[in-house]
Design goal:
Maltoporin, Chain A; 34 strands; 22-stranded antiparallel barrel; 53% strand
Length: 702
């Protein structure tokens, strides 16, 4: 269970790791945002930000970053399988959400398809920031829907006071018999040189659930198949279909195993800092199959008769990434510039999709991303940053079911962001130019796109600790290689995927209004947003099959997204060392294709979460309930999703107080063992959420 107080703790304001959480929300005058790329220390107008850190993060951690953030406002997850899940922000996913590590992309294949894992293990993180809205101006056009940044300490940021600093986390979760452990060591070699080492291991079995594996629609389909096979005198096939329809309790082929390791160093002095790291990520996980899904067959293969048929084994994915990172900063010592910052990341990534023991398709990604930022000093309330960004990715899929041809993406961006304080008024201006070239030489296709984006945000403090604001943005996004060139069967998603090389740049105009602040012992935040898209790119089920697979085709049409996020917390009472709080989070998004095109697929429904919590310096206890509404506003050939309620409870004990970070925590999630399905997931009809899940963990710092 993600501690709900953490969800409310930071709607748009950062929370210090060691600070006690009062009533929940923190105001933007007492706690400034530390923005992912650290452009400006208080960028709180253009980006609505949530932060997870400390015990709240420890209790939220799951195998994948997407499932670790789902209780934050406006956040859902793709939840393709326990081993692969990306964040969904305000209904956006895939190529519109950037997942970053310390401001640089993961440089893996997770953005190309929902079945591909993110190569960032939350076990090794100490802080996660979620930025919604026009974050594209900060992180590139692929963040048009928002960005998630995960911070680790592989490149140290400070020199420890002690001769050696040790940080460890271990946990167990019952629903999948999950065992996890992570550890990190920071050691000062000199007064300015720090070295770092970390590692983690996680293993889980198949996931237990609270009811049937298949959704009601898929169960009805299997019952119909069983009846038909029985009528035709095929008892074995009928029994197989009945077995699938009645499958319950555990989702087959959902086990995972992940290893990570990292080494780094940093030189930290008055002039600034310089550091580098190398890391390794290795993961193996199962990919459940949709009942009745098949793969391409050679001509005539299906006519060989039953005895000639060969049953395909379960689909699993094995991936490995080796990564190198560099971070440097020079403090200029005055004048117009405060500092110059450089950030580089390089990745060599490979994953293999297996069918049983046979190698299906290999995906190879080699990429480089870099940022240079000139950070301006504060001059009477004027501050900002000017910078450039470079991204290069070589992608190659090898195998009979390689659905995307080899391709190279090159992207160069120039950006500027300026902030002005004018009395009670805050003004922010941002602009970005980006050139993206996508080349698929093996099929003789290549495209080049120029995109120009801008945003303006105004915030006004209408009362002490209460601010209202409005943001207006105009953003552009270049199509990805997968959206342009896909054309073939994809083994893991069990779909035939088709792109369109003639797509143009996707454009949007966004409007966002908000109010947030304090009222007595209560804190609150309410945000409304709308985005009007021109030439919006989306993938939809066409209702036809090709090579025994459903055809998912990319289309480009106008679209509209709108919705809201709300959160509030109130201090109910104080008794001795304890503070008793109540909190609530709600979010909703509605997305529609223009010209009567109907709903956009995989949009999360309305969600309401409420909790009661007792807090002290050493002890926290919480109970919460999360209601997720049904989603019957569906696209063509998309199935509805039933509503569900999850009830969770957790406790945490910090024997040395909040400032130390050492804690023992436990939780029981989905206490009533209900079946829940995320509508944003491609696999929601046969991969429901975890059933009752008892978790216990220990965080030690010394």
């Amino acid at each position: 269970m993600a501690a709900g107080a953490a969800c409310i703790a930071v709607p748009a304001f950062a929370q210090d790791d060691d600070a006690e959480r009062g009533g929940g929300l923190h105001d933007d005058t007492s706690a400034q945002i530390v923005v992912t790329a650290q452009f400006v220390e208080s960028l709180d107008i253009l980006a609505g930000t949530s932060v997870l850190s400390g015990t709240e993060l420890d209790q939220s951690i799951r195998a994948q970053i997407g499932d670790s953030l789902t209780e934050l406002p406006g956040v859902s997850a793709t939840s393709f399988t326990p081993g692969a899940s990306r964040p969904v922000l305000r209904g956006f996913q895939g190529e519109r959400i950037r997942v970053l590590t310390d401001g640089i992309g993961a440089i893996d294949a997770s953005n190309t398809s929902a079945d591909h894992a993110v190569t960032i293990d939350p076990l090794t993180s100490y802080r996660i920031e979620v930025l919604r809205g026009p974050a594209a101006l900060l992180f590139g056009s692929q963040a048009i829907g928002g960005a998630v940044n995960v911070f680790d300490r592989r490149i140290p940021r400070e020199v420890p006071d002690e001769p050696i600093h040790f940080d460890a986390l271990a946990g167990y979760a019952s629903a999948a018999e999950e065992r996890s452990i992570a550890g990190a060591v920071d050691m000062p070699v000199t007064s300015t040189l720090v070295i770092h080492a970390d590692g983690s291991y996680r293993r889980s079995d198949d996931l237990d659930i609270g009811g049937f594996v298949l959704s009601p629609d898929l169960r009805a389909e299997q019952f119909a198949i069983a009846a038909e096979e029985s009528e035709e005198g095929h008892p074995e096939e009928a029994a197989e279909a009945l077995g699938l329809a009645n499958l319950s309790g555990t989702i087959p082929n959902t086990a995972t195993e992940t290893w990570t390791a990292g080494l780094g160093f940093a030189v930290i002095d008055a002039w600034g800092s310089f550091g580098a790291s190398v890391s390794w990520f290795d993961s193996d996980y199962g990919v459940p199959s949709r009942p009745g899904a098949g793969h391409a067959h050679e001509e005539g293969e299906e006519d060989e008769g039953e005895e000639g048929e060969e049953e395909e084994g379960p689909v699993t994915i094995g991936l490995e990434q080796i990564r190198a990172d560099l971070r440097g900063e020079i403090v200029t010592g005055g004048g117009f510039l405060e500092s110059i910052r450089l950030r580089l990341g390089y990745s060599d990534y490979e994953h293999i999709e297996f069918e049983g023991d046979e190698v299906g398709t290999r995906f190879l990604v080699e990429g480089l991303e870099g940022r240079l930022e000139l950070v301006q000093a504060d001059h009477d309330g004027w501050r900002g940053v000017i910078g450039s960004q470079l991204y290069v990715r070589d992608f190659n899929a090898v195998g009979a079911e390689a659905f995307v041809p080899p391709n190279t993406t090159e992207q160069i961006g120039l950006f500027a962001l300026q902030e002005f304080d004018i009395g009670e008024l805050g003004l922010e201006l941002a602009g970005r130019y980006e050139n993206t070239s996508v080349d698929a030489g093996t099929i003789g296709l290549g495209r080049s796109f120029d995109s120009l984006s801008g945003a303006i945000g105004v915030g006004y403090e209408i009362a002490r600790e209460t601010r209202i604001g409005v943001n207006l943005s105009r953003t552009e996004r270049a199509p990805s290689a997968e959206e342009l060139f896909s054309n073939g069967p994809h083994i893991a998603t069990q779909a035939f995927e088709i792109g369109n090389p003639n797509f143009t740049t996707e454009k949007s105009i966004g409007l966002e209004t908000y109010i947030r602040g304090e009222l007595g012992s209560a804190t609150f935040a309410l945000t409304g947003f709308v985005s009007w898209f021109h030439d919006f790119i989306f993938s939809a089920d066409t209702g036809v099959e090709r090579d025994n697979l459903p055809v998912f085709q990319n289309f480009q049409q106008d679209a509209t997204y709108w919705g809201f996020e709300a959160e509030a917390s109130i201090l109910l009472a104080e008794a001795g060392p304890f503070r008793f709080n109540a909190d609530v989070v709600a979010d909703y998004v509605r997305a529609t294709i223009g010209n009567g095109g109907g709903p956009i697929p995989r949009i999360p429904p309305f969600r309401l979460l409420g909790g009661l919590e007792a807090q002290s310096s050493n002890f926290d206890a919480r109970i919460e309930a999360e209601y997720v509404a049904d989603q019957d506003r569906v696209a063509a050939f998309e199935t509805p999703t039933d509503d569900f309620v999850l009830v969770n409870a957790s406790v945490a004990w910090r024997p040395l107080g909040r400032s130390n970070g050492t804690s023992i925590f436990a939780s029981v999630n989905n206490i009533f063992d209900v079946v829940g399905r995320r509508h944003a997931s491609f696999t929601k009809d046969f991969v429901p959420l975890s059933g009752i899940d008892a978790r216990i963990g220990v965080r030690a710092r010394f």
